[in-house]
Amino acid sequence: MTTDAHMTLIDAPVGTFVVIRHLTSRPEISTRLRELGFCENAVVRCVMKGYGNIICEVYNTRVGLDSGLARGIHVSVSE
Asked: What pTM did the predictor assign?
């Protein structure tokens, strides 16, 4: 498992808690992700992956993202 700060959300193993470090999507996409709770220092858990998509839990809410969005969310493993 990669514990490097440049790991993206799509790389996080299922069941792992990660902390969002920064977003690299276009500004309007990053704004919408933040509105959904995917903001810097938020703790996210990868619940399920399949068919290029990921389901995450953030603030007790499950959200599905496609792999393109998940690649724009840089994370590190929560301690």
From this structure: 0.86
